[in-house]
Amino acid sequence: MQLKNKILIAYYSMTSHTRRVAELIQNAVGGELASIRTKEPYPSDYEAMVEQGRREVNEGFLPVLNEFPVDIDACHMIFLGTPVWWYSIAPTMKSFLKNHDLRGKIIYPFVTNEGWAGHALQDFATNLSGGCVKSGMNVKFSGDILITKEVQIRNWAKEAVKDIF
């Protein structure tokens, strides 16, 4: 099995920030890139989407997801990315973690935000059924401007791969 087949970069992205970081990681270390998607899309109106997201986080709602397009069993290392919603991981990521058996996988979480990550990185371990959660990365944006330096993201990803393989 080739190294790239052992690495998965799975992400949920609402505004494309998390997707952008996932693509940077893939460019740095290879692997397969896959988006986590809900069956029911969020409202296109930003304010309505924010209100729905707030309610979902507060109520512990887990949205139904589309079938994931990658065979997770074939992956050894998984980079998992999500935006921070109310200091936590997005409900979509929480649903993904609850619905997939990640035992035996090495997980490197990353979160994107425009303020404070809160407890989002810790939420990966809290919501995971198995798997070994390693040191995560907090990636900051200001609007569409990436504040965290791209080289920091690439170096974090390369160190993760070096540590495992």
Automatic annotation (TrEMBL):
Specify the Flavodoxin-like domain's residue ranges.
7-161
What InterPro entries does this protein's entry cite? Flavodoxin/NO_synth, Flavoprotein-like_sf
A GO molecular-function annotation: oxidoreductase activity, acting on NAD(P)H
Q: Which PROSITE patterns match?
A: FLAVODOXIN_LIKE
Signal peptide start and end residues: none
Output the Pfam families linked to this UniProt entry: Flavodoxin_4
What this protein is called in its record is: Flavodoxin-like domain-containing protein
| Organism of derivation | Dialister invisus DSM 15470
Q: Give the classification, highest ranks.
A: Bacteria, Bacillati, Bacillota, Negativicutes, Veillonellales
